[in-house]
Description:
It is a single chain. By secondary structure, the protein is mainly alpha-helical. The chain has one domain. Helix content is 62%, strand content 0%. The chain contains four helices and no strands. The longest helix has 15 residues, at 34-48.
Amino acid sequence: xxxxxxxxxxxxxxxxxxxxxxxxxxxxxxxxxxxxxxxxxxxxxxxxxxxxxxxxxxxxxxxxxxxxxxxxx
Length: 73
């Protein structure tokens, strides 16, 4: 089944950005439930606030021990 829809340019641009970041087609992004699109945006916002340096600093403060058996892959 094929559906043609007219969407605002800014919405299409946002869908294109999500598609590129997630290695999806724009059609796949528009086919996703609206909750999924909101979750993608939320994840992107949280990721943009992250810092690799801060992450590594937190890891440096942790104990240098082997993981428990239940934590191994």
